[in-house]
Amino acid sequence: MDYKPGKYKVRNLKLAAEGRMKIEWAESRMPVLMALRKKYEKTKPLKGYKIAGCLHVTKETAVLIETLAAAGAKVSWSGCNPLSTQDEIAAALAKNGIEIYAWHGMNVKEFYWCIERTLDMKPNLTLDDGADLIFTVHNKYPKLAENIIGGTEETTTGVHRLRAMAADKKILYPVIAVNDAETKWDFDNVYGTGQSSIDGILRATSVLLAGKNFVVAGYGHCGKGCAERAKGLGANVIVTEVKPTAALKATLEGHTVLPMDEAAKIGDIFITATGVKDVIIKKHFAKMKDGAIVCNTGHYDCEINIPDLESVSKGKRTIRPNNEEYTLKNGRKVYLLAQGRLVNLAAAEGHPSEVMDMSFANQFMSQLRLVNLDKDGVLLDPDVYDIPEEQDQEIAGVKLQTMGFNIDKLTKEQVKYMSDYSAGT
Ligand code: XFA
Fold this sequence. Notes:
There is one protein chain. The protein is built from 17 helices and 17 strands. It has helices at 16-29, 31-40, 59-70, 87-95, 108-119, 132-140, 156-167, 182-205, 221-232, 244-252, 260-266, 282-287, 306-311, 343-346, 353-375, 389-402, 412-422; strands at residues 2-4, 8-10, 50-54, 74-78, 99-101, 125-128, 150-153, 175-177, 213-217, 236-240, 256-257, 269-272, 292-296, 313-320, 323-328, 333-337, 384-385. It has a nine-stranded mixed β-sheet with strand order 1-2-5-4-3-6-7-8-17, with helices on both faces. Helix 1 (16-29) crosses helix 4 and helix 2 (31-40) runs parallel beside helix 3. Ligand XFA binds at residues 56, 58, 60-61, 81, 84, 86, 155, 299, 344-345, 349-351, 356.
């Protein structure tokens, strides 16, 4: 472990060169954040503000951190999940003078120790993924909240926890729910999860998708993303749902809709994306064709009932990384990917940088917004706030520009027409 109190604690500083190369690759795929960096590195609007962050230490997060620093902020960072930290990225950040406490595989005690070290500098802002940093401030160091002008939160789970705290009037400072921005969750779920889940299936199996019956359980944003991508590769997509509107959308997209009892008999590949448990259970495994492949991209690893699979099997072996072959008592074989955990994280690399670009641009702009409100002397009440619609449009607009696309603008007459129309005249 390389440890310099007040500066960093990382696994191995010698990994810095490797990490830097990965960060540079991410920079080349994250044009919106890089445009923000270019825009603000001269004027440094975050100068004088200290940001404590607790978010996955990945190459994409590194681009966010170094953009905040380039805009003048003093940052201190910890990872929000001991298994997502990439040691080479932490090393590269430490080497570049970023205060960071993060290493892969740390235990729970070390996890909170790292969060507490990021609070030593008495931050003015917090940046969370899962709300552990905010909760540490609230539960253990509430006095620190006096210096904090606001925070931002990246995920659905974190936003849920914070809204519950706000409803109880227990929240001590304003927090912006980055998750709920359209340029965040919509793109993460549909395009990020869609592509990375297919990627995970292909890495774990290398099967041909064309001509296969590809069963998607759950037609929310993640399920829709998986379905669309599988269709693009020539699979016949079958959707299972419990919600009529979602099932109706799936049929109008050209997918077949079936109950799982029926889909189980004909599916070649199954992916669960529902958010509930027991989507694929004993009776389904019993009906599956020989060679069926089963995996999950939902938040929890209980969507596929693995004890049920074990109970109908007489043996299993790992046939390739993230691919376990179960031999059923009926003699057929079923392949379970990534032990039923998120296949896009376990067998692939999670969201592509291009998708994280927009999430993190929302993070950056929300931090900047809190600072600008502070400079203007505007005090937001302690509560959870949405991203303004204009911020979503601005980020999507910059993304389009960097991709080389121009779009039309409404004329004055059109704007007038629209407002007249909505007034009912
Ligand atoms: C790992 C992320 C989680 C990594 C990190 C290292 C590697 C690959 C664990 C994560 C999240 Cl829990 O990233 C991926 Cl080698 N991400 C976010 C992400 N996904 N999340 C798919 O990629 C979103 C989400 C998840 C999983 C929401 C709700 C519940 C679970 C952080 C990140 N990813 C980009 C990595 N690109 C290489 O920076």
